[in-house]
């Protein structure tokens, strides 16, 4: 069984899918598309989706992390990552994921130098160094598409502590963070890691159970935002 996973630099949902593939022991290649330009490219590639991750699994196209989890579970039943509480899975896939996505896009626009820190693999076959060299021009165009209104970003920043409290509670009751990792572990950890990419949030989150859990499940996550958040 082989898979090709398509993502974008810094995509926490793409990392969720990658962690599931590793956990299942499925051989895969990851191919990154340019941020924001990936939307029309995915349609041209026949995925019928506007967001990453998407994947081909033995030639079958699969979209979204929730569907990827189910496709992998059907193809490789062990080690099992399902079932999980689907309401929690939707919260992780929608609310938590969108909260840190909005903050990440807002941070990238306010700290343009941060874009280069998320480049760790080829994008459309171009080596990271070449992509970084193009950022003075391409980065401006990407930032225009990434722009998140200040009020939206600040609203998401305000609800982030509540999301982290929920992660701590899920750890405390054993829903996540157990000996047998499940789809929720892989959904939640990369979102927390993206929040930890902010210099002003990293230490506070790392001191929480949620932060220790995220680093344990997702030890590698590139990227760093400077001091862009309100004090």
Shape: globular
> What's the end-to-end separation, in Å?
49 Å
Q: Quickly name the level 1 CATH class of the domain at 86-116 and 146-217.
A: Mainly Alpha
- CATH fold-level label of the domain at 86-116 and 146-217: Glutathione S-transferase Yfyf (Class Pi), Chain A, domain 2
As laid out across the biggest beta sheet, the strand order is 2-1-3-4
CATH architecture of the domain at 86-116 and 146-217: Up-down Bundle
Extract low-pLDDT stretches: none
Describe the structure.
The protein is built from ten helices and four strands. The protein is an alpha+beta fold and 231 residues long. The protein has a domain at 86-116 and 146-217: Glutathione S-transferase Yfyf (Class Pi), Chain A, domain 2, CATH 1.20.1050. A four-stranded mixed sheet has the order 2-1-3-4, with helices on one face. Helix 1 (12-24) links the parallel strand 1 (2-7) and strand 2 (27-32). The protein is globular. The N and C termini lie far apart (49 Å).
List keywords for this structure.
231 residues, alpha+beta, Glutathione S-transferase Yfyf (Class Pi), Chain A, domain 2, four-stranded mixed beta sheet, 10 helices, 4 strands, 57% helix
Write the layout of secondary structure elements.
Layout: E1 2-7, H1 12-24, E2 27-32, H2 38-44, E3 54-57, E4 60-63, H3 65-75, H4 86-110, H5 114-117, H6 128-146, H7 150-172, H8 183-195, H9 199-206, H10 209-217
Parallel strand pairs: 1-2
Antiparallel strand pairs: 1-3, 3-4
